[in-house]
Protein 1
Amino acid sequence: MLTLPDGRTLLAAGDRPPALSRDLLAGTLRGLVAAGEAPEDALELAAGLLGGTGTDPVGPALCCVHDPVTGTLFWGRTGGHPAPLLRRDGDPLPLDLGGPEERLLPGDLLLLHTLSTAGPAAPDPGRTTSTGVLLALSPSLGPDLDAGACADRAAEALAESAEDGQRGAAQVVALRAGTGSGPAGHG
């Protein structure tokens, strides 16, 4: 979670390769988005800048830019990374059902998460396991919880559903729109 010079917030989650510095990747994405690149284009350009040849240097990743003035969220993803999950008026809405732009309303909860390799069966075959876990958790992420508490609960649920070797791998970024509490992360 980084604040851009124009006041927008950059949120990202992903399974970055161990050889790639988190700070280098975050700084590269921040610079590209601040220069006007859309999130999906920024991910693609970052992969080219940081990788050269060989495996994808960015890995499965999700990049979002939230404009608090307009409430608009722009997002992009690579490598089959799960789409953001939006909780609005008590209903969980995976954003892969729409386009890469969504207007967030006050009180909306946005969750970005890393992939989970194990866990309960997803609600339908098109969903990743981690999304299925968060869809089931959604009723407990009510408006009384701030972004930090939601990120903590989501990370705990993903860790509980993971295989023993993956328990510490869950990463969650949460944003509660229009509340002034700002984004929070866990993992």
Protein 2
Amino acid sequence: MTEPRVLTEIDGPIAYVTLNRPDKLNGVDLELIDELIAAAEALRGNRDIRAVVLQGSGRSFCAGLDFGAAFKDKRRVARFFFAGPRMVNRFQKVTAIWRDLPVPVVAVVHGHCYGAGVQLAAGADLRFTTPDATWSILEAKWGLVPDMAGTVPFGELLPADVVMRLSMTGESITGKRAVELGLATEVSDDPLKAALGFIEQIIERSPDSVAATKRLLYANRHQSLRKAYRLERRLQAAMFKSKNTTIARRAGMAKESPAFGPRTYGP
């Protein structure tokens, strides 16, 4: 029986999604793409989880696209790449889909973070990395452009000249340097522990306001001011009606820890 390429474990309010090709440094093939998308879609409707940890097994987070494995079936590659008008293809969806989850998605990076791996990490909401992890937008080495939806978060996280330099050269940088540039969120010798520290803070907040905040911040990056303000008002009105908002307010006034119910906002 073939070992799953993606493992999902739910531990209380946290879902751990682990890339599971350690012998290939978690290189991405078509099956891994399918399994990652399926994992994200399964988690999207789970109203009890509060955060997702995205990580890699073995010595690396993800060493990029496994060309040898991925291109064995060129017809399938073509089906993955050529989607209908106005649709993201599956290479793009595997990284973009994490933004659609109504909970924070935190990438925990160690070892190699190359090509598809950098784009997958960038598709998460936050990125915690070891100082000695190696990050590289590696597509330039193969005469390609980043094409797994990573250019959208790259453009949000980094100045244009920095994105150009990293994308055009394929230059390798350390996790420490990735944080200095803004590509990663925080550097730690134990990035999982650091990520869980952030998640512990999130769990103390209403799951509805967290979900609505994530949607609001992403949606308003590329909207007109009128649409941005309208969305802000609409989401805040939804929060006024949320039972979890009432729980948060009462707990805050009583200086107690809130006991939230399941998330009610979002899918």
